[in-house]
Structure formats: C-alpha cells, structure tokens
Amino acid sequence: MNELGTRLKQARIAKGFSLEDLQDLTKIQKRYLAGIEDGNHTMMPGAFYVRAFIKQYAAAVGLNGEELLEQFKTEMPAGETAEKKQMPETFTSRSRSVARTAPSETYADIIPKVLVALFIVLILAVSWYFYSASTNRDSANRPAEEEGVSVPYEEPVPATPDETEEAAVEEPVEKPAEPTSVLSLKETKGETTTYTWQGTANPQLEIVADGPSWIAATDQNQKELTSKARVMQAGEKETLDLAKVDRLHVRIGEYANITLIMNGENIEYTQPLQTQNIVIQLTNVE
C-alpha cells in the first residue's frame, strides 16, 4: 500500500464510506477504487485514468485531488498524452434544424397555390353538380305523352331489414396512432447529463468510437451491458439492447471520440467535459 492510497483510504474511513458507497458516488468500479488504495495502477486503463480516478476519489472524501497528485507525483505512472478533439462548432442538432428549415419555407410558398387550385376545382365541381341536377329535373318533369309512351304506376316495395342494414353507411374506424420515440434533456449536474426517453418496446443504443476512449455501460442494477468495460479504439462499434433496462448509465473517458445513437437519433453532449456520464431514464410505450 503506498502513501497516497493510505491517505485516501483514511479519508474514506473517516467519512464512514465503504468501497460500495464510494462506487455509487464516483461511478468508478470498486476494483479500481481498491487498486488506488493498494497502489496497484497497472490494472487501470491507462495513466490518464489513474489521475482522473484519483481526483474523483479525493473529491468524494473531501480532499483536494490536484494537491495530492502534486504531493505524491513520484508515485504516479508515466503520463500519457491524450489528444483532445476540439468541440465541434456546430452540433448535429443545428445541422438538422437547418435541414428542416429549408423545406418549411418551400412548403410555405407552395401551400397558398395549392389552396387556390383546390378552390377553383371545388367551384367547377359545384357548378357541374347543379347543371346536372337541373338537366335531370327537366327530364323528369317532361310529360310522358310527349314521348308517346304511357308509364304504368308501380307501388314501391318496402325494403327488407337486411337490405336496410346493407345500405347503411359504415363509419370509418380510426386507427390508433403509432407510438413515437422522444428523447428529452432532463438535467445537467457536474459531470452527469440526464435524459428521458419514451418510445417503442425495443430501444437500442449504438456506441461508435472515432478514437481511443474508456467506455463502461451499466443498468439500474450496476450490471455491465457492454461486452466488457474497456478502452474502445477508432472504428469499434457496439450495440446495446435496452428492452429490459429502466435506467442506463454510460461512463465516457474521452467524449469527443465517442458517438451515442439512440434508435437512429444522435445523443448530443451538452458540456465539453473530457470525462463525463450520460444517464438515460427509459419509459417504453406499448
């Protein structure tokens, strides 16, 4: 056990926290927290994550992580250079909004012309109706003698109940509206951004890596949903089935290298924090 790990463990015990309590507070897996206390840094994903996890641990027990790292810098592994990608100046949602605006303006120009054309067609249809009705009425009022034919009188036969039912007009049955998927931002607190999702009973989350980044995904019971918590490399992709998940927690080490897609819709990052959490609360619509 090294001095830094001893210092952190003493602070945790003084706070009355167990490793399980600290895991819930920091969202860092218990085995990594134990590795920090034991000075076993080889089990970490990399030197960058050692420093990041130590700072989160220190903040949770009321210590200054930066001061601890400076004080015990000789115990730290050799640093890794993590290239940060610049925050895109334009988010995906802005691109979508621009794409949606142009068709709306086009529709605004076309709709008045369509309405005028429909009005003209309606006038022609009404005129033709009255003309046809007038012609038929004149033919019906013309005396039968003018045609040289006598028209016998026939008593109308009352319609049977079956014929009356067949003649009844069936009312159209309205089809129930199909459920739609809605992803909404709920809140942003610290490193955690929370969304709510309502949609069909088959939600899926696609994780796409454009560069190296730590990824861990768990459900409401802390069960890992990815094949394993790891550093994903550029070109890697993994799809999670969320049909039986009520709450999803995704821990991301380098947000700029990871794209999250929920049933075809990109989940946007609301804050440019290198390490952050994305939480999604799911409600299925049958």
TrEMBL record:
The keyword Transmembrane applies. The keyword Hydrolase does not apply. Keywords: Membrane, Transmembrane, Transmembrane helix. Gene3D superfamilies: lambda repressor-like DNA-binding domains (1.10.260.40). Pfam families: HTH_25, RodZ_C. Residues 137-182 are annotated as: Disordered. Residues 207-274 form the Cytoskeleton protein RodZ-like C-terminal domain. The chain crosses the membrane at residues 110-131. Residues 162-171 have a biased composition (Acidic residues). One of its GO terms (molecular function) is DNA binding. InterPro entries: Bact_Cytoskel_RodZ (IPR050400), Cro/C1-type_HTH (IPR001387), Lambda_DNA-bd_dom_sf (IPR010982), RodZ-like_C (IPR025194). PANTHER family: CYTOSKELETON PROTEIN RODZ (PTHR34475:SF1), PTHR34475. This is Transcriptional regulator in cluster with unspecified monosaccharide ABC transporter.
